[in-house]
Amino acid sequence: MPHSPPDAWPWRSGAAVDPRQFRSFAEFYPFYLSEHANRTCRRLHFVGSSLGLVCLALAVATASAWWLLAGLLAGYAFAWIGHFGFEKNRPASFKRPLYSFMGDWAMYRDIWLGRIKL
């Protein structure tokens, strides 16, 4: 089931929204998606998450925790480039780190399932 288009979300009007106002992840996720309306930003998130998974696999295969650090750095570097360079917004991870992390993986899943265009 595709998500509603970003222009249908009320917070895309330009008004500042504090991500801490959401009481559940179910409330937060549509906002999270609205903060990823730019296709290049979504693509960078997807690449960063994919690299993070590769690094996780390498950490398990080599028993080296350094790959975990590399995975976190790759994931967040790609995401922040997407936000600051293309989406022109501040990542919600600064105010809602857990929900944002969950949103990254929910969006990653939804891209794979064809619910969100890459």
* Unreliable segments of 5+ consecutive residues: 4-11
- How many strands appear in the DSSP assignment? 0
Question: Which radius of gyration do the C-alpha atoms yield?
Answer: 15 Å
State mean pLDDT (0 to 100 scale): 89
Report the structural category. Answer: mainly alpha
Which short descriptors sum up this protein?
mainly alpha; transmembrane; 61% helix; Mpo1-like; 118 residues
Topology:
Layout: H1 25-34, H2 39-62, H3 66-87, H4 97-112
Helix pairs in contact: 1-4, 2-3
Kindly describe this structure.
There is one protein chain. With 118 residues, the protein is mainly alpha-helical. 61% of the residues lie in helices and 0% in strands. The protein is globular and about 45 Å long. It starts with 24 loop residues before the first helix and ends in a 6-residue tail after the last helix.
Task: Report a brief summary of the structure.
By secondary structure, the chain is mostly helical. It has helices at 25-34, 39-62, 66-87, 97-112.
